[in-house]
Amino acid sequence: MDDGSSTIFTDFLSCLGVRHTDNFSNRQFGTMPFKTMFGLKKLLETYGVDSVGISLGDVKEIDRLPVPFIAQTVKGFVIVTSVSGDTVSYLTRSVAETAPRSVVEPSLTGRVLVAFRQAGAGEPDYDSHRFTDVANKAKKWVLAGVCLLLFVYLFVTNRLYDHVSTVLLALIDLAGIYITWLLVQKSAHIKNRHADAVCSVVEAGGCDDVLNMSAAKFFGVFGWSEVGFAYFSVSLLCLLIFPQYTGYLALCNVLCLPFSFWSVWYQRFRAKTWCTLCLCVQSMLWLLFFCYLGGGWLKEAFPLRIEFFVLGLTYLGVMLGLNALMPMLDRNNK
Amino acid sequence: MDQTQTDKLLKSLTGAKVLSPLELNEMRFSGKKTVLTPARLRRSGEKNR
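Output (structure tokens, whole complex):
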């Protein structure tokens, strides 16, 4: 599913074998006027599924009910998928669980919803919703493909492969974009398991602690994650499109290096916690520096021409653009 | 589910009854996203006794 969450409605439809799309069905479930079992019953009717709510006289008789059915427990609802012998299998928040009947039965209120699918049951306009879902998923792959093709085209036509330093610069910039994008997502409170995995390498929760501090903002306005993302993305684009200005990129990199000392000092002595993603960014700044140094690009930075200042303005423009977009990305603002 | 199927099902259950629309409306979906693990069900069952 696109938003990464499922509902009891889509879980139930899946158990019943009713064809549906998660996006549309979850939206229908989320917007139903009665957020109750009555509302769900009415919604199921529009999918061609009949249902009846039953209050059991004896909860031990759940084995006589046709599965799947929704059962109310004192803590919420579960979808019972099978009752065999002494065990009950059920679905809770899309997680399949199995428990002894002696555990499940005491927690039941005795109220259940039993459903039967009619012939031809399914989501209204399923084909059109399915097409939209597939098209939306395909968009991401098309975007990735376009970016890859452009990258390869520029890399080859500008002969960046000729020099080992430019190959490494492109690779480090790519890695920098990925790491700072994870940081941007963290700043925008977007859950990402890759970001969490990287962050827990040095210190669990360290990234969140550091990113939530006032020092995580440049002049209290720009998040360092935004600054980093703007830096690596503009650097890569400039390297790919205007490789003749690699010397200016080298000079910009040198100007950024003092930040790495400050950041490490801040994490060590002020925050007293380590942000793995931030440390990765600082390492990449230094790796870039050594590549620029080794490739002899630093001496090409002088004399300074107008293009150096245009490059500076581009960094600033992308940073401001991203800063304007951040409130829209931030999950806490939604 | 037609009336015959419902009647047949109810006959096989002791003391069961069909819930009215009002009773179904009392069964609200909470916004909680808690996974009801067997351990949670056990604890809630113990309290329910």
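The longest strand of chain B covers residues 17-18.
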